[in-house]
Structures are given as structure tokens and as C-alpha cells.
Amino acid sequence: MQELCSSVVLRKHSWIQYNAMSDTVIKVEKLSKEYRLGTINHGFLFRDLQSWWARRRGKEDPNSLITTYQQHLVSDDNSRLSGGRFLALDDLTFEVRQGDALGIIGRNGAGKSTLLKIISKVTSPTSGVVKIRGRVASLLEVGTGFHPELTGRENIYLNGAISGMNKKEIKNKFDEIVAFSGVEKFIDSPVKRYSSGMYVRLAFAVAAHLGPEILIVDEVLAVGDIQFQKQCLGKMDDISKGGRTVVFVSHSLQTIASLCRECILLDQGKIKKRGLPSEVILEYLGEGGSSCADFTKLGRTVGDNFVQLVMGIVQDANNEVITEIDIREPLKISMHFTVKQDTSIRYIPNFHFTVPGGTYAFVSSPSSISELSSGNYIATCNIPGNFLNEGTYYVGLAITSYEPGMTIHFFEPNVLTFSIRDPMENCVGRYGFGYANVMPGIVRPNLDWDVRKSG
To answer: Its Gene Ontology molecular function terms (predicted)?
Structure first.
């Protein structure tokens, strides 16, 4: 059993070596960002004098805009507040390599947007350095980089010029940008008259089509409609697969799991965890979990005097421990357990499958149950290829019995995790038309169809 669990470590190590051979395009070293709390300049001499006089008398600044928030921070997060200053980012160090799709998740106020602003050179760091290799296009908030008085056409040319492109290069991309954005009818109207959705559509189209080596996107895509969000996510996936780099912040864990190949969890301005999206999402949700959980090595006793859980494991058809698998390939979930004494009880092993956010996908148990004498057992659930949809799944392990009444001998929720990924090779038939990214639903079975002429 120890050999089974150790194989996942070897797989992870090879993944790290693969990335180490590629080129670094973003290098963040000892990055920190500190903000002064309160209003520094009010825009009026009268209010500046008011604040100065209050400070001279040791009174609270009457013009402070975030006094209540400051008190909230003092009570909730003393580690980030000191001397009227707030540490938004605290000593971050990491690298992003060419072709990576990096997701960044965390609670509100964790420092995600601040980090993207510094990487995009919108905000300067208090200490540390950010080294960038390549042209950066960023979409941080509605209206970023657009002049409200200029038309959509003029803003496309303006942004292209700022990105270092000449007029001919922008002209060659112009029709593609407008078609992607879907604002053809309003392209010669000032963007100040655009709705927030139209703003984002055009802004993303400009950022994605002007040839950036690095695309940085914050949560602004939530403004657009569902179909456009899928279109944008599909475009970001194409950019990443084309060898360019994507850095993406989102509160949609399903989107992070499907789009990104690596993820960072920010917590109180620090990197709490970095790794595969499935593992980082589990950490964020506070649910733990991996593709192999050996409870004997953990020193935990799970179960009762009748039956105890030993280990859970996710494997492919070659019996290798996996954290991620192609949508077309089968996989299996196994539970090792020990029956402690001979009884007439019929034990029922069952697996509880959930997705990010806690939604149940399904529960599976054997179709026939027999009495089990004392000893060691392995219960395996085989999942065929082309059944589960693309995304991250968590597996809870349980054994129950119904003699005389229902007894739960153990239930360990979200012990195991794995991800299904669709590389979209020869995708017609299993992927479908009209979807730019993940199709909806928890399962996506490849069913038997018959299409024929009716007459």
C-alpha cells in the first residue's frame, strides 16, 4: 500500500521537472504591497486642514473613509494591520512559465486583484520585484485601458498602439476583434455609452487578439452573459495551448479547474498553497484530500469495532495513482478496509462523488452484497471513459449496513480528489458544437445514437 501511495509523488515530481525545462515569463521575488489606511488627500484644502487639526489634537480624522473597516481589520486580522498601514501582499515569491495557465483563488481581500495590478504595472510594489518577459495584455476591471470619449474603433487602435503594434498590424486584427466582441453596430459610438457587458466584450476581444505573450484576466468576465463567458474561456484555453501564458483570477472553482493547469491559493496576502487545481481547490474549501489517502500512515483509526478504513486510492487502467486523467480513459476508485470480526452483518461499501461547492454528483455502491468474514478487503468502483464531464471531483468513502437497522460504520467525506480533462482532440461527437469551453452538467456520457432518414 505504501508503494501505491508513493507512486503519486513520482508523478508529481516529473510534472515539476517538465515545467522546469520551459522558459520563465513572470518572476515574482519577495513581493509586498502596503497601503496607508485613511484618506491621504481629500481634494479640498478645507478638509486637509480639518484632518491636520484633528491629528494635532490626537482626535480621530473626521474625513477618514475607512474608519469602520480599519476597526474591523483590527479585530479580525491584526497580522496585516500595523500602525495605520495594511499589508495587502506579504513576501510573495513564485514563477510562471511560458504556456502555463495559472489560476489564482482566495477569499475577498486575499490580495488577488492587487497582485494582478502589480504584475500588469498598474500599481507599484512596496518592496520586491516583478520581472516580465513578453508583451502583457490585462483585463482587470470594467473600462480598464479605454478612453470613454473615444469610439470603440478608436479605442482598438489606441490599445494596439500602446501595446507596440503598428497601424497595419492592428488593421489586420480589427475585423476579428469586432466579430469576437459582437458590438459591430456600436463600434463607431463612444464607449461611454456602452453597457458594462459591451465594455467587457470589447475589452476582452482587444486584450486577447492583439498578440500578447501574457494575458492577465480578473473576475470581470462575470459581467458578460453565459455564452460570452464560454467564448472567452475557450479563447484563453486556445491562447495557453498556443504557447502563450494566461493568469486568471476567478471565484468560479469549476472554471479554474477546467481552464488552468496550475493554481495558487492566496490567504491574507500570502501564498497558502500552490499545485494542481484539484488539490488547491480542496485546500481552499477546507476539505483536504489527495488521490491516495493511507490512514495507517497517518496514524488514524477510521471506523468502529466491526469494520475500519485502511486506504482510499484513485488509479488509471494501468493501476497507476493519478490526480488527472483524459476524459476518454477509464479510472477506478478503490477502498481498502478491514473487517475486524466474524458476524452475519452484510457490509455495504459506497462512494460519494461531489463537485466544487459541495454539490452531490452521485453515490455508488455494489449491486449485490454478501456477508464478509474477518480479514482485509478491497472494494473498487470502475468508472468508464466518456462518462464524467470535465472538471474536479471529490470522493467520500463510507461503509454502512442495514442489519437490524441502518448503521454508518464510517464516512470520510472528500478524502480523494481527481480531475477529468478534455484535450479536445477529434472532439466532434463527445464535445458537441456551439460550446467554447466546458459543457454544462456533471456527467457527459458517450451514448449510443442512431440518426437516419425517416422517409
So the answer is: ABC-type transporter activity; ATP binding; ATP hydrolysis activity
Contact predicate 256/106, CB 8 Å: no
Architecture of domain 18-36+83-285: 3-Layer(aba) Sandwich (3.40)
Q: Pick out the chain residues at pLDDT < 50.
A: 2, 6-22, 39, 66-76, 428-436
> Is-above-0.85 flag for pTM?
no
Q: 47-60: per-residue pLDDT in tens?
A: 677 777 877 777 76
Would you list the domain boundaries of the chain?
18-36+83-285, 292-421
Fold of 292-421: Coagulation Factor XIII; Chain A, domain 1 (2.70.50)
On whether the CB atoms of residues 247 and 102 are closer than 8 A, the answer is yes
Q: Quick one: CA dihedral 429, 435, 436, 438, positive or negative?
A: negative
pLDDT value of residue 349:
95
Q: From the CB of residue 323, how many other CB atoms can be counted at a distance below 10 Å? A: 22
Size (the chain), residues: 455
